[in-house]
Amino acid sequence: MSLFRRFFVLVVAAAFLLSFSACKGDPTVKKQKYLESGNKYQERGQFREAAIEYQNAIQIDPQFAEAHYKLAHTYVALSNWTAALQELQKAVSLQPSNIQAQVDLGNFYLGVRNVKEAEQVAVALLEKDANNADAHALMASIYVAQKKPVEAQREFEKALELAPGKVGIQFSAGMFEFGRGNRAGAELRMKKALELDPKLVMARMALADVYMANGDFDSVERTHREGIAADPKSAAYYKALAKLYEMRQRRQDAEKVLLHAKNTLGDNPTGYRLLADFYVSVGETSKALDEFASVTKQNPKDFGTRMDYIDLLVGANRLEEASQLVDEMLKENSRNQQALILKARILNLHGKHSDALAILEPIAKQLADNAAAHLQMGIAYNALGQASRAEAEWRDAVRLNPTLLEAQAYIAAVALRKSDAELLRNTAEKIIELRPLAAVGYLNRAAARSMQSDFGGAEADLKKAIELAPNSPDGYTKLGTLRGVQKRYVDAEKMFEKALQIDPNAAEALNGIVATYELQKQPPAKWIARINKQLATNSNNDAFWTLLGRAQSAAGDKKAAQSSFERAVSINAANADALTFLAQLQVSTGALGSAAATYQRLIDGNPRAAMPLIMLGTLEESRGNTSRAQELYRKALDLEPNHPVAANNLAYLLMEGGGNLDVALTLAQTARRGMPNNPSTADTLGWAYYRKGIYGSARDMLEMAVQAAPENATIHFHLGMTYDKVADTTKAAAHLKRSLQLAPNGPHAALIRQTLAGR
Fold first, then answer.
1. How far apart are CA 310 and CA 380, in angstroms?
2. How large is the average pLDDT for residues 300-305?
C-alpha cells in the first residue's frame, strides 16, 4: 500500500474512532435504553449487537439523531460503508448543530475519495467557525489528497495551534509528516499522540513504521513491547512483534510471542489463532493443522476459525476429516451456506461434480455475489465438459473478488485453451501481483508472450519460474515447449527429460518428447520405445498408456492401440481422453456398436457434459439412427443451449427429416454465431434459408461455405439448387456438376442428375 493511500485509510479510521463520544440523550425512556445498551456493546467491540440496539432506538423514533450518528460509527466498524454514509447524512440533517457529525461526514467523503464533497463540508464548517481545529485538520487532509503539501502543512499547524491536546489531529499530522519523508517530525507527532492516549494502537504502529524505515530494529521491538505493556489485550502488537522476529530470522522468539498472545487473549479469536496463522504463513502446514485443531476444540463456537481449519484440511488433502467437520456444522445448521460451499468443494475434489452442482446451484441463486460459490461451480461445470458455463462462472468469481487466486488460475487456463494471449497476459500479471514468489504467474505470462511471438520475454519468465520452483517439472516442460517452437529440438528434448527426472509421472513432458520426435519426422517406433521406457518406471500411469495408444495408432497398429486405451481406462475409468480415442479407433475399424457403447460409458461418467452426447449423436447419425441422434443433440442442448455443434447437427436433421423449419433456422443461426468461420455452419444456415424460401440470403451464405470448403459435394449441391431457384442456370449447372464429380454415388446424385436432365 502506498504511503498516500495508507494516509487516508489510517487517518479516516482514526477520525471516526476518536470522535466517538457521548451526546445528550433523549427524554424518551425506551429509546434511551436501547441507545445506552448499544453504547455498551460498542465499547466492548460487539458491533453487530450494537447496531441492532441502535436500530431498535431508531424504530421507536426515526428522528433520533444521536442513534443515527452512533449507528453510522458502528457501520464503519463493520465496513458497511454505504449504510455508514446514509446514517451520517441522516444524523447531520436531523441535528445540524452536531459539528462533530459534520466533521465525520467530511472525513468519510475523503475516505471514499469524494474530495469535492469533503471540501464543501470543510469550507462550510470554517465559515461557521474559523477556529474549528477539526475543520482545519479536515482541510489539511483534503490538501494532501489534492497534492498540495504546503497548504496541508499550514492547515495542520493551525489545527495543532488551536487544539494541541486532540490526539486525532496529532496522529493525522504525524502521518502527513511520515508520508512526505519527514521521519523526525512523524516520530514527534506519534509520541505526542501516545502521550495523550497510550492505547492508540494506530499511533504506536505508525511509530514502529518510522523506526523500521530508519532501520532501527531495536526501537521497533521496544515500541511493540511497550504497546503490549500498555494494552495487553491488543492482538496487533503481538502479531507485529512476531513478524519482526520472523523477518530477523528469530523463529523461536516469534513462536514464544504468539504463544504468549494465545494465553493472554484466550477469549479473542484474533489473538488465540495468531500462532496457527503464523504457521500457515511460513508454510509449516503440519504445525498449523495441529494448532488449528487445538484452538477449534477449545473454541467450538468460533465459526470463522472452524471454517479456516476445514479449508486448511482440504488444502492438505485430508478430505475425510474436513468432510466430517463440515457435516457436523451442517447438523447444527443445514442452511449454513459457507459450510455448503465447503462441502461442494470437497465433492469436487472427490470427482462428484454433479453432486457438487446440486448443492451449489440453489446457493448461487441466493448468493449471486459469492465468489467462492462461482469458483466451485466453474470447477464442476468444467469437469463435466461444459466449458462455456465454467468460464462464465470463473469470470463472475474474479469480477466479484479479483484477489481470488484459484479463480484467476482457471481463467488463465481458459485463455490458454482459447489461445487468447491478451486475456492470458492480463490474468498472469494479476496472479504475479497477488503471488510474486509463485511460479504459476510467470509460467502463464510466458505462454502469453509466446503467443505474441515475444520469445525473449517468454524465456525470461520461464527462467524466473524455474528459479522460484527449481524442483517443479513445470518450468522445464514449458521451456522445452518454447524450444520446440523455436525449432531447437535437441534443447527441447533436454528440457523435457529434465522435467521427467524431477517427476517421472510428468505426462506433459513425455507428450513433449513425443511431439519433438514427430516434428523431426522420427518414426512412430521411436515414440513407442520412449513411452515404454517411461512406463517401466510406473505402469499405472493412465496418461502414459493413452499416449502409447496414440503412438500405436500412428504406427498403424490398431489392435495394440486398442489394448493400450483399454489399459488406460482400466486404471482410470474417468479418463475421458482414453475413452474418446478408443471410441474413435472403434469407429475407424467398423466396430460401430462397440464405439457406441464406449461413448455411452463416457456419457455415464460425465452426465452433465454435452460433448460426449454430441459424439454419440454423430455416430448414430452416421449409422442412420436419426431419431436417436436428434434425441442426443437435444440432450446436449439442454445442458448447453448455445452449443454450436449440437445446434448445427440438430438443425440439419430437422430439415432433412421434415421437422419444424422455424426451429431449424433458429438452431442454424445459433450454430453460426458460435462458429462464425466454420463452413459447416454456413452450409446449414444457407440450406435453412433455402428451405424457408429466402434464396438471396441462402446464396450468400452458401457462397461463403463453398469458398471455405471447395471439395465438399453437399455444399456444391446446396448452392447449385439455390442458384436454380434464383434462375442463374449457368452457375446452378456448374455447382451441381461439381457435386456429382466429387460424389458420383452420393445421397444427392439421383436428384442432381434429374435436375440437370430437365434443363
1. 20
2. 80
Distance CA 126, CA 118 (A): 12
Residue 336's SS3 state is: coil
DSSP 428-443: HHHHHHH-TT-HHHHH
Read off the DSSP letter of residue 26.
P
Q: Are 25 and 66 in contact (CB under 8 A)?
A: yes
Q: How far apart are CA 347 and CA 742, in angstroms?
A: 53
Whole-angstrom Cα distance, residue 34 to residue 166? 30
- Taking the C-alpha atoms of residue 570 and residue 574, their distance in angstroms, rounded to an integer, is 9
Amino acid sitting at position 315: G
Please tell me whether residue 572 adopts helix, strand or coil conformation.
coil
Q: How many CA atoms lie within 13 A of 283 on its CB side?
A: 0
CA-nearest of 693, 685, 701, 702 to 651 is 685
pLDDT at 34: 87
The phi-psi region of residue 350 (left if phi > 0; otherwise alpha if psi is between -120 and 50; otherwise beta) is alpha
CA distance 48 to 647: 52
Cα gap 592→597, rounded to integer Å: 9
Q: Given the C-alpha cell 466453474, which residue does it identify?
A: 378
- Which residues, at least 6 apart from 131, have a Cβ–Cβ distance to it below 8 Å? 162
Q: What is the pLDDT of residue 49?
A: 82
Sequence-ordered list of residues with C-beta below 8 angstroms from that of 373, at least 6 positions apart, any chain: 337, 341, 344, 360, 363, 364, 367
Render pLDDT for 133-181 as a digit per residue (tens, 0 to 9).
Answer: 988 988 988 898 888 999 989 999 999 999 999 988 999 899 889 988 9
The DSSP annotation for 161-200 comes to HH-TT-HHHHHHHHHHHHHTT-HHHHHHHHHHHHHH-TT-
Residue whose entry in the numeric block shows the C-alpha cell 484440511 = 313
Cβ count near 176 (within 10 Å) = 25
CB 357 within 8 A of CB 381: yes
Cα–Cα distance measured from residue 354 to residue 454, given in angstroms and rounded to the nearest whole number: 41
Say whether pLDDT at 2 is over 70. no
Q: Around Cβ 593, how many Cβ atoms within 10 Å?
A: 11
DSSP one-letter code for 24: P
Show contacts of 295-298: CB within 8 Å, 24+ apart. Answer: 295/262, 298/272
Q: Which of 49, 579, 574 is nearest to 354 (CA)?
A: 574
DSSP state string for 214-237:
TT-HHHHHHHHHHHHHH-TT-HHH
Report phi then psi at 214, rounded to 5.
-85, -5
Q: Is the dihedral of CA 743, 744, 750, 751 positive or negative?
A: positive
Sign of CA dihedral 340, 343, 345, 350: negative
- Listed in sequence order, the residues at least 6 apart from 662 whose beta carbon sits closer than 8 Å to its beta carbon are none
Please report which helix (H) or strand (E) contains residue 583, including its range. helix 576-588
Please state, in angstroms and rounded to a whole number, the distance separating the CA atoms of residues 491 and 486: 10
**d(Cα 520, Cα 83) in Å, to the nearest integer?**
66
The whole-angstrom separation of Cα 617 and Cα 520 is 37
Strand intervals (E) in 132-220 = none
- CA 598 to CA 586: how far, in whole Å? 9
Q: Give the tens place of pLDDT for each residue, 738-750.
A: 999 999 998 888 9
Mean local confidence (pLDDT), 228-256: 89
CA distances (Å), origin 645, targets 12, 38, 295, 488, 596:
57, 62, 54, 38, 19
Q: How many CB atoms lie within 10 A of CB 38?
A: 25
The answer to whether residue 730 scores a pLDDT higher than 60 is: yes
How far is it, in rounded angstroms, from Cα 33 to Cα 476?
69
Other Cβ atoms within 10 Å of 119 Cβ, number: 19
Residue 158 is placed in which grid cell?
Answer: 493551525
3-state helix/strand/coil string of 349-368: HCCCHHHHHHHHHHHHHHCC
SS3 content of the chain, % helix, strand, coil (to 5): 80, 0, 20
Kindly report the number of other CB atoms within 10 A of residue 28's CB atom: 14
Helix axis angle for 274-281 and 251-264, nearest 10°, is: 150
